[in-house]
Each structure stands twice: as C-alpha cells, then as structure tokens.
Design goal:
The chain has 264 residues and is of the alpha/beta class. It has one domain (2-209). 16% of the residues lie in helices and 54% in strands. α2 runs antiparallel to α3 (247-262). The longest helix is centred in the last third of the chain and has 17 residues, at 225-241.
Amino acid sequence: MELIVEKGTVVEKKLQLSDNHHLNINIEQGGHLQLLLEGNYAQLETEVMMEPESILDLCDLDMNPVNTSRIHNLHIHQSDNSQAYVQSISLGYGNTTNTTNVIMNGEGAELSLNGLVIANGLQHVDNHTHVTHAVPHCTSHQLYKYVLDEQAQGTYAGLVEVKPGAHHTISEQTNRNLCGSRQARMFAQPQLEIYNDDVRCNHGSSTGQLDESALFYMRQRGIPIHEARLLLMSAFSAEVIDMVRIPTLRERLHELAEQRFRNL
C-alpha cells in the first residue's frame, strides 16, 4: 500500500487494517499527514519518508482482542526542518510488539515519540525505539508510560544514538511505569550512545506502585477503592494522550483509556 502527500497539502487519513500489510508513505515538501492506524492486523511494516518542512501526526491505536499477537515495525526518515509527532497507544488485550526506528538526517528536524500501555491478565507489551541523530541541530523527545495490573508484563528498550558531527543535539528520553499488583513485571532499558561533544541529552526510567497515601486519602473521603485506583491511573496516563494534537482523536483516546481502566 502506498500513500503520497503532495507538496504543501494537508491529508487526514484513517486506515483500518487487518492481516499483514506493508505501508509506504512519502510526505513531500511542506506536506502534512494526519494518520490514524487501527485494526486487528497481525503484522505491519510502515516506511515513512519525510521531505524538508513536512509534518507527520501519526497515532497507532492497538485495540486487539485477547489471545492475539500484533507486530508493528515503523521506520521514519526525517529531512531538514521536518516535524514528526508519533503516538503508540496500546489499549487492547493481546500481546503487542512495537519497534520504531527514526533517522534524523536533516538539520532542524524535530521528533516527539510517545507511548502508552494499559495491560492486565497475562498480556505482554513491548516497545523498542532507536532514534539516530545523524546531523547537527536536531531535537527528539520520548515519553513512554506503562500501567500494568495482575500478571501483565511490559518491556521498554530505547536507544538514542548521536553520530559524530551531530553537534547541538537535544534529546530527552523518559520511561515511567505503574504496577497495580505485585505480580506485574516491567523491564526497562533506556540507553544513550553519544559520539561527540556539545550536546544536551538525558534519559531516565522509574517503576513504582500506586501511592498508598493517596489511596488512603481518597478512601477517607468516601471514594471506593476501585474508583480511587481508576482515578490515579487515569491521571498518570493522561500526559501521553494529551500530546495527541488532533482534538477529536485526543478526546476519543481519553474515553477509550477510561473504559480500559474500568476493565482492569
């Protein structure tokens, strides 16, 4: 499947996918693509070529049912002054593996790469990211959050690579995780590989459980324990959804996330 966004145009697209697909996307100079990917596909390969000053708003929404597996391999090539805003939202009940590779090959490129996972039961959700700063004056920000309950397992492995000569790079990589049970497991591996000076890069990861003092405070004010847990989890996850720049989609994702929390 091929999708071309012509020079200087804005394209809004929703793709409902099933089975296996290979998606080739070319955003020409000054073009803007707003793309929602969803559906019960088994495996998806997506290749995005971004020409100078192009913009990508991409949301991959995972709502797969129980006892299914889903794989998405996403490759993005950014040119000068391009802007990529990518969200991976996993609200399904199956097992998911997302691998995202971004090569920032044009000066002034900007990347916002974010993910949210809500999982329970015996689910396993993996996110692997590799962001390469190949030229100077590029900026990347990553935020991945997991909410795991029961015996769910999650993995986040993120690598930011700053090539020789990619001076004035700015990169932030953050992974925050919330385990709602003692059986839930989270595996995190944020990494930086920096091969020159004059950069500003940081990374970090934290995993914890629900704040018992906050739960106690809410229960003292008559809020049932299940509702209190839901409110704390929703507040924790809202930051990622709020980064979606399409208002109608952002509102829908907040509603879907709340429904998912009620099924934990």
